[in-house]
Amino acid sequence: MRALFLTHNFPRFAGDAIGSFVLRLAVGLKQHGIDVHVVAPMARDLAREESFEGIPVTRFHYATPAFETIAYTGTMGRQVRESFGGKVALFGLLRHGYKCARHVAAGMSADVVHAHWWFPGGLVARWLKARQGIPYVVTSHGSDVRLARGVPGAAMAFRSVARNAAAYSTVSSWLAREAQALDPELRPVVAPMPVVTSLFAPGRSRGPSRILFVGKLTDQKGLHHLLRALPLMTQRATVDVVGAGRVDDARFRALATELGVADRITWHPLLTQAELATLYQAATVHAVPAVDEGLGLTAVESLLCETPVVAFDSGGLPDIVLPDRTGLLVPVGDHAALAAALDRIVGDAGLRDRLGREGRSFAMAHFGEAAAARHYAEMLRAAAR
Question: Whole-model pTM?
Answer without folding.
Answer: 0.88
